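User: Hey, quick favor. My workstation is busy. Could you predict this chain's structure for me?
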Amino acid sequence: MRGMIDVHCHIVPAVDDGAASKKEVRNLLLQEYKSGVRELILTPHYRKGMFETPRDIVERRAEYVAREVDRIRLDMQVYLGCEYHANADMLMELCKEERFRMNGEGYVLVEFSGRHDYQRVRNYIYQLQQEGVLSCCGSCGAISSSDKQLEQVEELIELGAMIQVNAGSLLGENGFRMKNVSRRLLKKRWIHFIASDAHDSKTRYPNLGECAKYVLKKMGKEYAETVFVKNPKKMLDGRR
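Assistant: No problem, here it is.
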């Protein structure tokens, strides 16, 4: 599938646990392009006490990535976003700080971990929706494949959240549990975005092309275009 948009990747060099060198940046960009990606939202981590690279440094290094796209003559557009790890100050920061928004628009990519119980996740999503923030849950770390927890995912979607799943989870690269959860969500059409979450060119590499083949086979062309192209375009524009 051509014209795909990767809404979650760690290609900005030396700001988190993603690309560590200029060479790796180039390798990752070439892999993204080869897989069929034509637009990228760069999403460096922001996590208090772990990844707190100053805004000016993140922006300067993201500009380097954009220049590298031009240098190697790829027909690809690059935008800046963030993968924001949920914390007690989240509501205030996401409402005030444009730097945490996807392409500076209305969406935020929120990462929840296993330490966030369902009630906390639900409260965060509800508060963000009340403030007009379009929240995209970017991790299934706290979700199991039990019917009860899948019902909780449905409730989050009804609140207004959108679900992003990593391609590697659907392909079975992140273990059986994540594959089982992701494929059940896919079958129910509860996935709104599928992204690479690429960190490097060898172990956590861009793999949207491979995943798109799987989704096309299982769900058909219309749904595949929705999660790989149409919904990401809405994210870029800040539209529901």
